[in-house]
Design brief:
By secondary structure, this protein is of the alpha+beta class. The protein is 29% helix and 40% strand. Strands 1, 2, 3, 4, 5, 6, 7, 8, 9, 10, 11, 12, 13 and 14 form a 14-stranded antiparallel beta sheet that branches. The longest helix is centred in the first third of the chain and has 59 residues, at 2-60.
Length: 298
C-alpha cells in the first residue's frame, strides 16, 4: 500500500514538473516571438529614418544662388509683381529650397476631430518635398509624406513603430506633385520666378495664375494678392484618391486664413494658413491649420 502511494506521488510530481517545463517553454516561445517582432519593427523604423535622411539631403543640395533683382519681375502681371516684390527683398540669394518647422491641427479623415501635430518640412519646388511629423498624443503617429525623383509616397507608423501606411504609386505621386506646386506660393516664392521656369497669367487686378511643371503634372495655382502684395489666398485643382466623384481625380484645394507672416533670410512668407480639400463641394473638409515657427532658406 505504501509503495502505491509513493508511486502516485512520484507520478504526480513528474506530471507537475512536465507541466511546468511546458509552460516555461511556451513563455520562452512567446518572449522569443515578441523579441523577433520588436527587432523587425525597429529595423523598419531605422530603414525609414535612413530614407528620410537621403531624401532630405537630396532636396537640400544647392548650387551657387544668384541675388534677387527686382528687374527679374518687371514684365510680369501687376499682381505677380506686387507679390514677389513683397516676398523677396532685393539682393536676397535665390533659394532652391526652404526647411520649415511648424505645428498646428490636422484632420486625418472627414468627420473626425482635428489632432495636434508638430512637423519639419523641406520644400524644393519643383524637385520635391518631405514632410516629417508626429501627430497626436498618446496613440501618436510618426511618419512622413514625400515627393522626390518624380515619385511620391507616404510612410506612417502607429506609436512610432507599428506600420500603418506604406503607400506609393501613380495616384500618390500625382497628389504629392500637386502639393509641391500648391505650397510654393506660401513658402518658396523664389521657385515662382520666370527665371526658374514659372509662367504667369493675369486673371484680374487681384488674381493671377502661375503655371508650373512638377514631374509629369502641369499645375496652375491661382493666387489672390492684396494691394500691398500680401498673399491672401491660393487655390488649385490637385489630384486626389477620392476626387469629386469619389474616384481618383482632381479636387479643388484652397489655402486661406493667412493672418500672419514673417521675414526669414530676406523672404517674407505666410506663417499661418488653413487648407481645405474638395472646396466648393459637399465633401469640403478643413484639412490642416499650420503655423510656421522657423524657416531657413537654402
Amino acid at each position: 500500500m505504501l509503495s502505491k502511494r509513493l508511486f502516485w506521488r512520484r507520478a504526480g510530481g513528474q506530471q507537475s514538473a512536465r507541466g511546468a517545463v511546458t509552460l516555461y517553454g511556451a513563455a520562452l516561445s512567446v518572449a522569443g516571438a515578441i523579441f523577433v517582432v520588436a527587432v523587425i519593427l525597429g529595423s523598419y523604423r531605422a530603414l525609414l529614418e535612413r530614407h528620410v535622411e537621403r531624401v532630405w539631403a537630396d532636396l537640400q543640395a544647392a548650387g551657387e544662388p544668384a541675388p534677387f533683382d527686382p528687374e527679374m519681375v518687371a514684365e510680369l502681371p501687376a499682381p505677380a509683381q506686387r507679390y514677389l516684390l513683397r516676398a523677396i527683398a532685393p539682393g536676397t540669394a535665390l533659394a532652391i529650397a526652404v526647411s520649415l518647422e511648424m505645428q498646428g491641427q490636422i484632420t486625418l479623415a472627414p468627420g473626425t476631430e482635428a489632432r495636434a501635430f508638430q512637423a519639419r518640412q523641406l520644400l524644393a519646388t519643383p524637385r520635391g518635398l518631405l514632410w516629417l511629423a508626429r501627430i497626436g498624443d498618446g496613440r501618436s503617429l510618426w511618419g512622413y509624406d514625400f515627393y522626390a525623383h518624380d515619385s511620391g509616397g507616404m510612410r506612417w507608423l502607429l506609436w512610432g513603430i507599428v506600420p500603418m501606411v506604406h503607400a506609393s504609386g501613380a495616384d500618390i505621386t500625382r497628389s504629392a506633385a500637386g502639393r509641391v506646386a500648391l505650397e510654393a506660393p506660401l513658402w518658396l516664392p523664389s521657385a515662382l520666378l520666370p527665371q526658374r521656369g514659372a509662367r504667369w497669367e493675369a486673371v484680374d487686378e487681384q488674381r493671377v495664375r502661375v503655371h508650373l511643371k512638377i514631374g509629369t503634372e502641369a499645375l496652375t495655382p491661382e493666387l489672390t494678392i492684396a494691394e500691398d502684395g500680401r498673399l491672401e489666398r491660393v487655390e488649385m485643382r490637385r489630384w486626389a484618391l477620392d476626387g469629386v466623384s469619389g474616384q481618383p481625380g482632381y479636387a479643388l484645394w484652397v489655402g486661406d486664413s493667412m493672418t500672419e507672416e514673417k521675414t526669414f533670410d530676406g523672404y517674407t512668407i505666410v506663417t499661418r494658413v488653413r487648407a481645405t480639400s474638395h472646396a466648393g463641394t459637399p465633401q469640403a473638409s478643413p484639412f490642416i491649420t499650420a503655423v510656421v515657427t522657423r524657416a531657413e532658406f537654402h
